[in-house]
Amino acid sequence: MPISLVVGSAALIPTALGIALRNSLHPAAKFVLAHIAATGFAVSLCTNDYCASKTTRLLGKNDKGQIALWGLALMWPFHLGLRLRLRWKRSITTEPLYNEILPGWYLGGWPHDASCLPPGSPAVLDVTSELPRTQISGEYLCLPTWDTHAPVVPQIEQGVSWALAQRSVGRNVYVHCAHGHGRSVLVLCACLIQGNHAADYSEAIRIIKSRRPRVKMNKRQNAAFQSWMQKRQENDTSKKTK
């Protein structure tokens, strides 16, 4: 389900409570409910298909993976709800946080602590806009992308080039989003194809699913991948004609 619909629907709850209890609530409680609702509606609006690629900094995350204090202060209802939901989903799943897809290539969810990273001090390719970097040192690249959305083609190209450069010097690479099912899968598919580990999408996703069966890209992510493939083919054709 699109994040805009999920968060927008959730924002209706504090809105309804605030309206229903407007005559009995303390002003501070009214403010809190209003803040929670406003945060939800803001995220819902900014994650629609027309805005999502332009609003990935809304939560305060920068290129280093850090979430600014203003982002935590203004958007705390979303950050809190997200962490609680993530912890709950982790508590009920039997899926490991990450899997090694091919030697040196890891795919998975957000590592809530540096100790959760794959072995070998991997270079981390983070495809989230909502979760902070957890390791203090090491190679890191953030491609900020909203949940259920997809990085745009220039981001995919940047991520692929960076990841292949890390592998070329012998570093392991960990590609992650929140759960390791969608955004990160798209980027890893592109990496496997560009790195000649897979001939096409079908082979790349087969390799990934053989090690992490629950991965599944949505329509947005499939469309973004096809756009990247088309751009790649155009670049290859252009090189051949020169």
TrEMBL record:
InterPro entries in the record: Dual-sp_phosphatase_cat-dom, Prot-tyrosine_phosphatase-like, Tyr_Pase_dom, TYR_PHOSPHATASE_DUAL_dom
Gene3D superfamilies registered for this protein in UniProt: Protein tyrosine phosphatase superfamily
Record-annotated Tyrosine specific protein phosphatases domain positions: 154-223
SUPFAM superfamilies: (Phosphotyrosine protein) phosphatases II
Pfam families found in the cross-reference section: DSPc
Any GO molecular function: phosphatase activity
Organism superkingdom: Eukaryota
PANTHER family registered for this protein in UniProt: OS01G0859400 PROTEIN (PTHR47216:SF4), PTHR47216
Protein name, per record: Tyrosine specific protein phosphatases domain-containing protein
Species: Ostreobium quekettii
Source taxonomy: Eukaryota, Viridiplantae, Chlorophyta, core chlorophytes, Ulvophyceae
